[in-house]
Amino acid sequence: DIQAVLGVSPKTITTVCTVAVLHGWLDLAAELPDEETVDAAIAALKAEKAALKGNKTPQVSLVEPYRDQVIEWAYNGMEAKTIWTPPARPRA
């Protein structure tokens, strides 16, 4: 088990493998990079992931098209469980 031998987390192993694949370091003909190059590549990947994480588009609620109806039901005292229970489907 690589994780136990190296004493690192699975996430670290995945990150290093991802960087190695992206840079072609696993190719048998490729020259292995020095530690500074690997560290810089890992830092760049982490920065890119962090930037992408901050740019997520908020997901629109699937209930949004029914917003007015749900508000009306709640205002009229209908319980949340009843509102969220799907209607019975007719049997074929």
User: Quaternary state, please?
Assistant: single chain
Query: How helical, in percent, are the residues?
Result: 55-70%
Beta-strand content estimate: under 5%
Major sheet: size, sense and barrel closure? Answer: none
Mean pLDDT: 83
Q: Separation of termini? A: 53 Å
Number of strands: 0
The ordered H/E elements are: HHHHH
Shape: elongated
- Provide the structure class: mainly alpha
Radius of gyration, CA atoms, in whole angstroms: 25 Å
Number of helices: 5
Note poorly predicted spans: none
Q: Can you tell me about this structure?
A:
This protein is mainly α and 92 residues long. Helix content is 57%, strand content 0%. It is built from five helices and no strands. The chain has helices spanning 2-6, 10-22, 35-54, 67-75, 80-84. Helix 2 (10-22) crosses helix 3. It is elongated and about 70 Å long. The protein starts with a helix and ends in an 8-residue tail after the last helix. The mean pLDDT is 83.
